[in-house]
Specification:
single chain; mainly alpha; 2 helices; 70 residues
């Protein structure tokens, strides 16, 4: 149970940090001259790729089962 809660907390922290960095990069890109539509389209594509990678990693870890300690 603690293992699952630890993974959930790790995921929440990762999502928060990624969203903050994405916001700062979007703000910087807007001030450098990119339109909001360009930034939004790239952000959606990037978010989809990141979500796919995270889902695959979680599925692989779930299918492998818990690690056994020595």
């Amino acid at each position: 149970m603690v293992y699952i809660l630890s993974k959930i907390v790790d995921l929440l922290i990762s999502v928060f940090v990624a969203s903050m960095i994405a916001g700062w990069l979007g703000l910087a890109a807007h001030y450098l001259g990119l339109s909001r539509l360009d930034i939004r389209t790239s952000a959606l594509m990037g978010a989809g790729i990141i979500a796919l990678v995270l889902a695959l990693l979680i599925a692989i870890e779930w299918l492998a089962g818990p690690r056994k300690s020595k």
